[in-house]
Specification:
The complex is a heterodimer of chains A (about 625) and B (about 375). With about 625 residues, chain A is mainly β. Chain A contains six helices and 33 strands. In chain A, the strands form five sheets. Chain A has a 22-stranded antiparallel barrel. Chain A has a five-stranded mixed beta sheet with strand order 1-6-7-4-5. A two-stranded antiparallel ribbon of chain A has the order 2-3. The chains are: A mainly beta (about 625), B mainly beta (about 375).
């Protein structure tokens, strides 16, 4: 008996150390391949979903579409292709952080990222991290964060992808990506361009989406080079240049135009040793826009912010079970614009993350961060999360955190109205998740509670000047379900994913649901493939939302629920080891539904798109 | 799908309501004609018994124009018993667009001026049935005045461009813009007095300090310099033009506040355009709203209501009402009642009614988003 127990202990130990080496090497690989490793290594108790290239390929037209149909996020879009804002768990767009290779890229002007200024084509994966993440990702990560990652593969390969599509409303899109790698060097570069008249019919009227045309070009260049066995130099760059006309509403046409440019460059030096990894990052981000009230005229208003960033982080492995990461981060923001002169702001933060495998079943993280920002005091924030592996099929994830969102340049400096007395929005949240993993399916069930105070809202004061104030307190709670299954019968492959969310987000004082937060949202994506042929179907249901704060129902106060579906077909014309040629057709809004997700701004009628995809 | 059914039911109910409304209005017309006949008969015998029938659902009441968005118009009957929001949509089954700036009244017509939509919707002011829409010749239209068969509409052009502002001249017979008169930056309110038009130039997105006078008989255009940001105008019982200038906040190139110009109430002689008097407010005080009724002028400054008579030789020093409005955006006075539009742009606004004898709130009514102007449709 004794012998048996000793044997068992030995076996367990062997297995666990074997598992340990596997995790270690995965982590080592992550350190090399990714810029943002804390997204993988310090998230034991957090719900994370990675959307990889196959999902990205079927949703290449827009990041909004990708996430609306493949995650729990809710979007509102001011008409197709126009400003698009995400919302996690009943929070708003400025409470959603967008992270580009580990760096927060939310606009310093508006506090949010317009999801129609991000091109899906040039990223290796898009990761959705639900729940508060201000310790790791800073301001704005209250509801959750969206991560746009470029991977650098250090293995011999040379791969090119060329994609071209043509569709309704004279929509043309083309992209080219090239990736080269060896043991020492890794390069990938991509360019994509889209141009659309976007003049879709407003169903049920004789009007069309006038003045909705847009085009944008996106350029990415990423490079990694092993200077020595332990030192990797990396460079990441992204350029986005967009030119849009802003379409009006169904009853008020618009003449306006909007040009925006984003340039993001980051240099990184990683030193990867056995016990520690250190990374030094230097980055420069530039965002600017020009708004033309009448695009025929030459007068415009503009805004511009340059961000300079230095970030040093050190990951220290004390043992196989315990590791620490410290992050020091300095940002300088220099703004200028028609409405706010040229203000500047500085921010410094210190972060400490601890990851501990307490037992084979329990892994937890303790994280703290303090920001020092010129002009106002940022709160001390923390996050605790833990994952408990009950058995092979079932894991419990729990996290609690304090998060914040700093006022934007517009909030502080906009004239007239800017308010220098604002304090950051702050928020507490807890999130309990259950994960069931099986060979053929996995299910994630999460419930959360978020309490946000000092919510910044713009309101007219008694003399009619609109000014932001820390006014509202909000309670958000709800449940999310994510389901995925993969199976096949012989050559018939199926992949089904579905998301459902129930969200209550109410103003504590008025007890009213916030505007543009649907109680219910659901989606379903079914992909089927057989040999050379594949088909995918996407369905999205958005429950009704209130458009005014008094929670009245009706045309002037709320938007009806809608369901919209897309279907796509792909056929592999040619497939060899070295090359692949695929042709596809995508039909969006197949049932020709008349729907709006922002009041009085109709979305497109049924529309078609044909695609050619060549990989060599 | 349950929500589809619900949606369909909604639409069906809605159509039913529209049809019902149409039917009732047809019924009303028939009843009206029968009554008119009988009235004719009756009136021969006894004048005192004459019953005046309403000309439409929205006669004898208060109209509140609401900027939105979405823009809408609310109705409250004079006896406060009937209220209805979104009357233009209810009657015509279409939205007005944004942002409803003002409504002008000419005989039985109401001209609904919507600035960003660059339209004027012409409706019967009592039934609110649409007659036509003026869609060409307007560029950020603001206010309309009527004189000798013509409508005169102030237009900003682009709010930030000083050289594209004009008055559009509308032929009221055809409801089309027939010509334009170029004026200075940011023409706002417009009043017709005799053969003259008086235009206050608030300045569009910027600031201006003139009142333009257009003599429609001679087409002469003159300007009167006043304090900064002239906006609200009335003709008092003495026949003088009274203009409320809000004064301006001054900024440097980096948008730091460096000072204020004085607001004022200026009285202008309409026959020779001379300034009769100009009462300056204290520096930094920026009054916003003004109304006139029965020999008394009312204005709002720092959320307080002040009043002064035609003969006053100085500004009042004490207020008569402390408003509770979070944003007083419209003011009107009628029949010893003072009406304030307390505007909200994220929820329903409120029309607040004060009794001018007791200075207390007697009624409040929920109205559309961004409630701004209050008109009496009698």
């Amino acid at each position: 008996m004794k012998k048996i127990s000793v044997f068992l202990v030995l076996v367990c130990w062997c297995f666990s150390s074997l598992a340990q080496t596997v995790t270690d090497s995965i982590q080592y690989l992550d350190e090399v391949v990714l810029s943002d490793t804390k997204l993988r290594a310090y998230t034991s108790g957090v719900k994370v979903r990675v959307l990889n290239d196959s999902v990205l390929a079927n949703n290449a037209q827009s990041l909004t579409g990708l996430l609306a149909f493949n995650s729990n996020l809710y979007f509102k879009e001011n008409g197709y292709g126009m400003v698009s804002s995400p919302s996690f768990r009943g929070t708003n767009a400025s409470q959603t952080a967008v992270i580009w290779n580990g760096i927060n890229i939310n606009s310093q002007l508006t506090g949010q990222t317009d999801f129609n200024t991000i091109n899906v084509n040039n990223f290796s994966d898009v990761t959705v991290r639900s729940g508060g993440g201000s310790v790791q990702y800073g301001s704005g990560a209250i509801g959750g964060s969206i991560h746009l990652n470029n991977k650098l593969l250090f293995e011999n390969h040379f791969e090119n992808k060329f994609q071209v599509s043509f569709g309704s409303f004279n929509t043309k899109q083309t992209s080219f990506n090239s990736s080269y790698g060896s043991n020492e060097i890794s390069i990938n570069a991509g360019v994509s361009y889209i141009n659309s008249d976007n003049d879709y019919k407003y169903l049920g009227t004789n009007k069309v989406n006038e003045n909705g045309q847009y085009n944008n070009v996106n350029f990415n260049f990423n490079l990694g080079y092993f200077v020595s066995n332990k030192d990797v130099l990396k460079m990441y760059h992204q350029t986005f240049i967009g030119d849009r006309h802003f379409s009006g509403t169904v009853s008020t046409p618009s003449k306006s135009g909007y040009e925006d440019e984003n340039y993001r460059t980051m240099l990184e030096w990683s030193r990867i040793a056995n016990k520690y990894t250190s990374k030094l990052k230097v980055a420069s981000l530039q965002e600017q826009f020009r708004y033309f009230e009448n695009k025929e005229k030459s007068n415009y208003s503009f805004g511009k912010v340059n961000t300079y960033l230095v970030n040093y982080n050190l990951n220290l492995k004390v043992s196989n079970k315990l590791q620490f990461k410290t992050v020091l981060d300095y940002n300088k923001y220099k703004g200028s614009g028609s409405s706010f002169g040229s203000p500047e702001r500085e921010a410094f933060s210190a972060t400490l993350l601890m990851n501990h495998k307490a037992t084979n079943k329990i892994v937890y993280n303790l994280n703290v961060r303090k920001d020092f920002t010129s002009g106002f005091t940022s709160p001390f924030v923390f996050a605790v999360d833990a994952g408990y592996t009950v058995n092979k099929f079932y894991e419990v994830k729990l996290n609690a955190s304090k998060n914040y969102r700093v006022p934007t340049f517009n909030d502080l400096y906009w004239n007239p109205g800017g308010n220098l007395n604002l304090v950051p929005e702050s928020s507490y949240q807890v999130d309990l998740g259950h994960q069931f993993t099986h060979k053929h399916f996995n299910v994630k069930l999460n419930s959360y509670y978020i309490n946000t105070s000092d919510l910044i809202q713009w309101q007219p004061n008694t003399s009619g000047i609109w000014s932001p104030k820390n006014v509202a307190k909000v309670n958000s709670y709800g449940a999310e379900l994510e389901f995925e299954t993969r199976f096949h019968f012989k050559a018939h492959h199926f992949n089904i994913t579905s998301h459902y969310s129930y969200t209550v987000s109410e103003n504590i004082e008025t007890k009213k649901q916030l505007i543009y937060v649907p109680f219910y949202k659901a989606n379903l994506a079914v992909a089927y493939s057989c040999k050379k042929f594949s088909v995918y179907y996407q369905y999205l249901y958005n429950g009704n939302v209130f458009t005014t704060t008094d929670n009245l129902r009706g045309r002037f106060y709320s938007l009806e629920a809608y369901a919209v579906s897309n279907i796509g077909f792909n056929y592999s014309v040619l497939k060899t080891k070295k090359q692949q040629l695929k042709a596809g057709v995508l039909i969006k809004n197949i049932y020709n539904k008349n729907y709006q997700n922002v009041a009085f701004r109709p979305m497109p009628n049924r529309n078609f798109n044909i695609q050619l995809y060549y990989q060599f | 799908m349950w929500h589809l059914d619900q949606c369909l039911t909604g639409i069906l109910t809605f159509n039913y309501i529209i049809n019902f409304k149409k039917q009732t209005s047809i019924m009303k017309k028939i009843i009206l004609s029968i009554f008119t006949l009988s009235l004719f008969v009756l009136s021969c015998s006894n004048d005192d018994d004459a019953v005046v029938l309403p000309l439409g659902d929205y006669e004898n009441g208060i109209l509140v124009s609401c900027e939105g968005g979405p823009s809408s118009i609310s109705f409250i009957s004079n006896d406060f018993m009937t209220t209805e929001n979104q009357i233009y949509f209810n009657v015509n089954n279409e939205e007005l667009g944004v942002y409803l700036q003002s409504v002008g009244f000419n005989d039985s017509d109401a001209y609904i001026v919507t600035d960003n939509a660059n339209t004027i919707n012409v409706v019967n002011r009592y039934t609110f049935e649409k007659k036509t829409t003026i869609t060409t010749g307007l560029s950020t239209p603001r206010y309309i005045a009527f004189l000798n068969g013509k409508g005169y509409v102030t237009n900003w052009g682009e709010g930030g461009v000083a050289s594209d502002d004009f008055i559009a001249v509308v032929d009221l017979a055809t409801n089309t813009v027939e010509s334009t008169i170029a004026v200075g930056e940011g023409p706002e309110q417009i009043l017709a007095v005799g053969n003259k038009l008086f235009v206050s130039h608030k300045g569009g997105y910027g600031s201006n300090n003139i009142v333009t006078v257009i003599n429609t008989a001679t087409n002469d255009v003159a300007t009167i310099t006043v304090n900064d940001n002239p906006d609200e105008m009335v003709i008092n019982n003495a026949g003088d033009l009274v203009v409320l200038c809000s004064g301006a906040v001054q900024y440097d190139a980096s948008w730091n506040v460096i000072g204020n110009t004085d607001g004022s109430i200026v009285k202008i002689n309409v026959s020779d355009n001379s300034i009769i008097s100009n009462f300056n407010f204290a520096n930094g005080v920026h009054p916003g709203l003004m109304a006139y009724n029965n020999g008394a002028l009312y204005y709002v400054s720092a959320n307080k209501v002040y009043t002064m008579g035609d003969a006053s030789t100085s500004l009042p020093t004490s207020s008569i009402i402390d408003l509770t409005a979070s944003y007083a955006y419209g003011l009107s006075v009628n029949n010893n009642k003072l009406y304030v539009a307390d505007a909200s742009f994220s929820a329903q606004s409120e029309l607040v009614v004060y009794d001018l004898s007791s200075k207390t709130i007697t009624n409040t009514f929920p109205v559309g988003l961004g409630a701004s102007k209050i008109y009496f449709n009698n």
